[in-house]
Amino acid sequence: MSYDGKWYLSQAVNSTTNGRLRVFDGDTATTRPFPIGPEDLTVQGGKLWSVTEFRGKRTVFGVPL
């Protein structure tokens, strides 16, 4: 998703390994830790929100932008 001039992409690995949040700001890319199985992204209340995908591990969570 795109917000305030930056691109945010969630990246899942598998059902036992933490995912990653990739943040692209122009020519700069950073990687932030993310829970296992991140899915869709949205922004609300100054946070980036997502949901995890794997059965028995599903949760909604928000992280600071």
Describe the structure.
With 65 residues, the chain is mainly beta. It has no helices and 7 strands. The chain has strands at 2-3, 6-11, 18-25, 28-36, 38-44, 47-52, 60-64. The protein has a 4-stranded antiparallel sheet with strand order 1-2-3-4, with no helix packed on it. It has a 3-stranded antiparallel sheet with strand order 5-6-7, with no helix packed on it. It is globular and about 35 Å long.
Q: How do the helices and strands line up, and which of them pair or pack?
A:
Elements lengths: L1 E2 L2 E6 L6 E8 L2 E9 L1 E7 L2 E6 L7 E5 L1
Antiparallel strand pairs: 1-2, 2-3, 3-4, 5-6, 6-7
Mean pLDDT across the residues is: 92
Structural class: mainly beta
Low-pLDDT windows of residues: none
Radius of gyration: 12 Å
Number of helices: 0
How far apart are the termini? 12 Å
Q: What about the largest sheet?
A: 4 strands, antiparallel
The helix fraction, in percent, is: under 10%
Count of β-strands: 7
Order of helices and strands: EEEEEEE
Shape: globular
